[in-house]
Here is the input.
Amino acid sequence: MAEALVRHVVTFGRVLREAGMEVGPGRLADALAGLDLIDITRQEDVYWVLRQSLVSRQEDLELFDRAFRAWFLRAPTAPLARRDELQVVRLERKAGERKGREAATGEEGEEAALGWSPDELLRHKDFAELDREELEQVTKLMAEMARRRPTRRSRRLRRRSRRLRRHHRGRELDMRRLMRASLATGGDAVERAFRQRVHVPRKLVVICDVSGSMEAYSRALVLFLHALVRSGRGVETFAFGTRLTRLTSELRGRDPEQALQAAARRVVDWSGGTRIGASLKAFNDEWGRRALTRGAVVLIVSDGWEREDATLVGREMARLARQAYAVIWVNPLKGHPDYQPLAGGMRAALPYVDRFLAGHNLVSLEELAEVLSGIERRHAA
Here is the structure.
């Protein structure tokens, strides 16, 4: 297949992913393999191959059709809106209705008179602009978001009964409860009780860039890492500049500021150079072989600036993506309107990323929390 067509399809996948669809490297590989088997001059065949490969949910069909018309047919279409924008529209509509009621009753709330609340201002303020007092307030809000962890169905527990819980939609009969209830009806099982498998937190591995180019955001993001570690078991955290450093033990402390100081002492290359590829290789060689990555959601926080050959970044990201359940990349620079992923390391990594998000303020971290809590299967499956 022509290299230009491969790049075209990969970029189309990124467009779909940015619009909120679950499109990862595995789906793109299936799409490219399918296109190899058809006559790509036939528009209908290309459409159905891409639709079968890249669409996994019925609610994505309209979004895919609009994107296909705009991307391949150059047909005029409305801008692709993310699903979270629909929620914003609903909130704005509710706010308008509330203001209408207030106007009708002659009442005005204090919030309407003063504008946004302090918390609302903090949610939208760039981490690079926060002072110490604001950072302390943000840290408290981060703790709430960090509780939203990815989950999976439990598998191996010592006792079978421990992995099953009572649920009205369960598929397995709860014999103990059924027999107990039948005592009140003379032994007749009138009402059936069911159980289903419980969900437990999925492993979460966070690899955070603390090099010089990330200095404006490192403090706030490491505090978010501390909140993630404190959210429960199964979280491993690493930092890198020119080399990889494990920070899980340092971030387990209760006090965020002390945890941050411990992390800064541990990372000897804090605010130094950037070697993304070498750091990812060190992680894959040591921790990937220990099966830490297998079945885990891997969260990488970096601006993607690589001072060495970016080819190594792509190679190690491919290794990582093969083992991980899903790979999420958070880039604080993505929150700026004029941002484009032009950095060599970022370009090399993107084909192996399931979700590419911003991380410059609380609103972007709330979006990240939504993504983490909603991951139930590998996007690239």
Summary: The first strand starts at residue 151 and ends at 153. Residues 83-105 form the longest helix (23 residues). The chain has a mean pLDDT of 77. The two ends are 23 Å apart (CA to CA).
